Structure formats: structure tokens, C-alpha cells
Amino acid sequence: MAQATNHFQIIGGEHRGRKFPFPDAPGLRPTPNKVRETLFNWIQFESSGKVFLDLFTGSGALSFEALSRGAEQVISIEKDFNAFQNLEKNRKKLKSDNLQIIHSDALDFLSKKPTQIFDFVLLDPPFHQKILEKVLKQLSIEGFLTTGCKIYLESEFEITNNFLNQEISQKIKINQQKRSGQVHYCLIEVL
Predict the structure, then answer these.
(1) Rounded Cα gap, residues 168 and 26, in angstroms
(2) Out of 2, 11, 93, 116, which could bridge 23 as a Cys pair, Cβ 3.0 to 4.6 Å?
């Protein structure tokens, strides 16, 4: 396994300040602290006791932040084996039974009907590979998006209602949207 020389730090909640290592992997870029802080400010009164699905877990920054801020359960999907192994090590350090890490490709995971309802879906796919479009379509087709579900998206382009309506069959609205450097991020809600 590649030596984990990079770190992210939990910025709020029960585990605030704890640092976790993660390995170098192609396309792996943890959500920056400023962006994570904005996201969790947006959902601060809604995340406690909720179920999160993190489809491109990577370093684990979003999953671990959700746990720290009171998520009841986080299901984390990661296809890179080194990143997956590292996530398992970090889960053991955190001593959390509320985090399930699955070694799978996101689209393969989404090809199976959901066995539970997710309150939040976190999407931070690799940029410039047109994966976001496929994942949104699959989430919609397979029934992962229920009324009231919120989806957090990171992309290299601005998310528009027009774009979302092409990929998602359910009625949706953009609740919040910002940009930080080259990263566009938003929170949408299924109506």
C-alpha cells in the first residue's frame, strides 16, 4: 500500500481537530476545509441522526465530517483499493460502528436497488470524466432519490437547473450554490 503522507482534519463536531492520513491516488482531491465548512453550515441543523451515502469517498473527509457532526450512519463507497484500505484503518482509529465502507465502483453500487433511504447523498466524483451525469441519472432511475433527500455536488462546472433536469427525473431545486477556486459546489433537494 502507498504510504499515506497526506492528511485532512475534521473541522467541526465531536471529533473536531482530529487528523487522518490518506494515500496519493489518481484523481483523489479531498474537499477543502473551506468548502466542507460551508456545506456543513448549510446543513448544520439537519445532519444529526441522518443517513448519508458518500459515493466517491476518496480521503474520507466528507464521511468523517458527517460522522463527527452527528450522522446516524454513513455508507462510504470507494473503488481505489489503497484508498479503501486506508479508510478502513481510519474507521478503526475513529472506533465508529456508524461508518460502513464498501469497496466498489459507484455505478456498480447504484446498479442495485437501495435497501434503505438516504437523507443525504454526497457526490464528489473525479473531474473531467463525465461521471457526475451518469451517477445522477443512475441515482434517479434506481430509486435512491426520495422526497426530501438532499444531494451535495462538487464539479468543475456550475450546476444549473437545466443540467439537473436532464439527468434527474424527480422534481428538484438548488438550495445553495457557491464556487471556491476551480470547484463549483451546491446542495440540491428532491421535492
Answers:
(1) 28
(2) 2
- pTM of the shown model: 0.94
Q: Which helix (H) or strand (E) holds 38?
A: helix 33-42
Among 97, 190, 191, smallest CA distance to 150 is for: 190
Cβ atoms of 11 and 76 within 8 Å: the answer is no
Which residue reads 434503505 in cell numbers? Answer: 116
pLDDT in tens, 31-88: 888 999 999 999 999 999 999 999 999 999 999 999 999 999 999 999 999 999 999 9
Q: 6-190: which CATH topology?
A: Rossmann fold (3.40.50)
What residue ranges do the domains of the chain occupy? 6-190
